[in-house]
Amino acid sequence: MQLEHQIVLVTGAGRGLGAAIASAFARASAKVVFNYRRSRAPAEAAVAKLGPERAVALQANVTRRHEVDAMFEAAARHFGGPVTTIINNALPDFSFNGDARSKADGIGWNEFAAQLEGALGGALNTVQAALPAMRQARFGRIVNIGSNLFQNPVVPYHDYTAAKAALLSLTRTLSAELGPDGITVNMVSGGLLRTTDASRATPEAVFDLIAASTPLRRVTTPEEFADAVLFFASPWSRAVTGQNLVVDGGLVKD
What we know:
alpha/beta; 15% strand; 7-stranded parallel beta sheet; 43% helix; globular
């Protein structure tokens, strides 16, 4: 299915990377659901620029299944058809500042649980809400947003990294089960991006160090990352599933 015929849900699209991904789909003429939890104003501002025929902003906490179901129903009513494509980007509250993160001797299971519920639980909720329509259409595109930190754990984001690793596992098991239904499931993993709301706390020296370590000698932008997400939703990736593509300027080789 061409991008212009898809109805794309991007979770956590009110700001940061999610907003960049949702805007990239809109530029490719897809119909886009800008999901947000608290960032209502920027989500609605982005949608206002695109118009109601191309975009809608819908509030839902993706960790709550009843809110996710209501969001999918509202999206179908707005666009006259079900969601065909899911980008699981929503991130539990987190600041990318290694100096402020809990270390091994102090981190609690509650911190792991919060990240797992947001990354893994949120993705499970959106996938389950979408499956009936995707199976009926024998088409679906699911792209989960991961991290390069489980290949390159340079900072002690123990809880965040564990949740993203679990999401990769879910990506691969879902791809095996859902492939016969015409549904592909992939992951796009990035490193530190310049700049999102989550990475604003990162010291400039860290950005400089990462840039110097990449073959491209720069830090990847949200817009560049979004391009790779569009690939997995496009017809050019129709034979690709269960994969994890690292988009970080060549820093990590998966």
